[in-house]
């Protein structure tokens, strides 16, 4: 591109406009690079301070994994195709979750995970790993975390649930540092009902737990004990605002717990869209079990039915 100072007129104006456009592009590119770099530095500093490294240790910058799967040689399966009499290999791998259900506990997180496993393009880790909120586990590294995931085929996505992440603010940074493309699902329920549910769970496991009104009230101040982590879990906006500082809003999907309970198909169809899964869920996948008082699932491939365990859907005190 050349500009001729002597040639004043439309041609010169066009030329200056092109130069201005080029300069603008360079500025935008530089700002984008700076933003990406600062985000990486921030996430790394959080990760390092979590691990107790000194603040200037930037050795993990760029740890954001590019190939979030580990191929397992032992899982190369030879499968016989009856029609073509052909043999082909199905390569299985363990992958960093494409989606993490990160809270809130007692809002139906198990139900969503269970429902998701009906979809043929989903594999899910059954138990909670709590990798990002446990220093000892985190020190084992992201490779260890990936190793904890179930085997998946190339067309399947991996999902895990660890509802304790919601209240652990540095978890957002650590997940982002590991894979910024991770999608997140959050379930919300009336905070008082959620608290009662948590109390019922605790009462099941703890002998001699005081009555709820004593448990929840601070004996010194006679107001709600907000030092209790179970109470603080219900401060949804405080926790969520932190996650939204790290992840873009379009990567977080919120499920209303009450609607999940009465209309699982509607909610799971939304989840399917959010995760870019092919449409699969249909009315026959869920049926209301009146003796349980909840929806249960029917697996299409086998016809097997399944309800959640007795620890889900406890009788509440009033
Ligand atoms: P309650 O036990 O208070 O009724 P989580 O899995 O996150 O711990 O949430 C447990 C809650 O999931 C239960 O709380 C229940 O209300 C809700 N839930 C939603 N769908 C359910 C289902 N199909 N079966 C059992 N519980 C379900």
UniProtKB/TrEMBL annotation:
Protein name: Sulfotransferase domain-containing protein
Disulfide bonds: 296-307
Lineage: Eukaryota, Metazoa, Spiralia, Lophotrochozoa, Mollusca
Keywords: Disulfide bond, Glycoprotein, Transferase
Catalytic residues in the record: 106 (for sulfotransferase activity)
Sulfotransferase domain boundaries: 99-314
Highest taxon above the source species: Eukaryota
Binding sites annotated in the UniProt record for 3'-phosphoadenylyl sulfate: 106-110, 189, 197, 295, 312-316
An annotated Gene Ontology molecular function: [heparan sulfate]-glucosamine 3-sulfotransferase activity
